[in-house]
């Protein structure tokens, strides 16, 4: 497995800031976890649990990382240089994922909603905390959801989502939208945990809808058992206006 020479900071998982609510924004898992529209904001604490100890930033659950991708390393080096000016740096799991030729496309290839990796050109100031910044990295094909790496001054990093592209939207445009559609919501304590849950759930969806005769592995079976046993509410967390209109 190749290693990137790009400097990165040690992983420091992050919990939601006081001003940020949590949710897992995803599509259905068949009858195990129904969804009203293409996406739905589910109560995070009711999702299948993950063991923090399984996520060390090395992505051992993904078989073929490929080789270091020099173009990707160059792009993240430029982004890291910009972050260094505000005292921040990309976490090691994010760097590992997006600088390896096979690993960096794992989410794009798994996505059943056409979502794709789209790393921003420069750090984006957080709309909820001074001195914190966000890095857009993944988006739905119709921008129903956009996911960001969130970096705090103390070194904590985690993943949030929003319906807004904060890099390409002006403050005037954002001010015209409903508050619930511009909200930033925490959805994972580390990038690797986000990547794993997203990757796993999309593979489960394909099994349920397109490949019912293919066997489930132990992780997929365990996840579905969680929902089969009624560990989630029948209703969703608060929907956005985009959800209610059937856009999300």
Explain this structure to me?
The protein has 8 helices and 8 strands; from the N terminus they run ββαααβββββααβααα. By secondary structure, it is of the alpha+beta class. It has one domain. Strands 3, 4, 5, 6, 7 and 8 form a 6-stranded antiparallel sheet that branches. It has a two-stranded antiparallel sheet with strand order 1-2. The model is unreliable at 241-248 (pLDDT under 50).
Mean pLDDT: 88
General form: globular
Helix content bin? 25-40%
Order of helices and strands: EEHHHEEEEEHHEHHH
Structural class: alpha+beta
**Could you describe the largest sheet, including whether it forms a barrel?**
6 strands, antiparallel
Q: Count all strands and give the number.
A: 8
Gyration radius, to the nearest Å?
A: 18 Å
* Count of alpha and pi helical runs: 8
Beta-strand fraction estimate: 5-15%
What distinguishing features does this structure have?
disordered C terminus
Short description:
Helix content is 28%, strand content 13%.
Chain-wise SSE layout:
Elements: E1 24-26, E2 40-42, H1 70-84, H2 92-98, H3 106-110, E3 116-117, E4 124-125, E5 133-139, E6 146-151, E7 157-162, H4 171-175, H5 179-182, E8 185-188, H6 191-209, H7 218-228, H8 241-244
